[in-house]
Known about the structure:
This protein has 5 helices and no strands.
Amino acid sequence: MAKNTKKTVEQSADLARKIWLAGVGAYGRAYTNTVGAVEQASHVSTELFDDLVERGEKIEGDVRQSVSTNDRINKVVEAAGKFGASRRAKFNERVGAVRKGLGLDRGIFTVDQKLDHLSDQVSALTKEVAALKKSVAKPSTRKAAVKKTTAKKPVAKKVAVRKAAAPKAETKKPATIAAK
């Protein structure tokens, strides 16, 4: 009985291997047929494409010839061209207005360029404000000084103030400080 079982196992293994090989063979045949069909279709499609291009060139020449001799079509094409030109001009005007409003008419196209330009403007305005503050502050300090000196004080004190405000003689610095 063991011999009989061994024989059926070998037959089953052999049958399984043949089924596997039949599947691989079917895949190989399908691959070969597909590659051949693709090459053939490629060749046929190239010929078909070239044929269609040739026909298209012939039809294009016929249409151009018939259009060029038709006055009605030429008038329509001319009118369409004029209309398109006027619409383009209006569009360009609108775009120009928007660009001017955004500050893009000065050659500033990116956000970084715009920010740099605005930063420069803010810096210039800050300097102008500082200069204006200085010019406004100077007359007010003069007025305050004039008010202090014109206040009613005894004449002797005015002289004393002037003497006290006189420049003092320079004092000599110690040698250690001068050396530094």
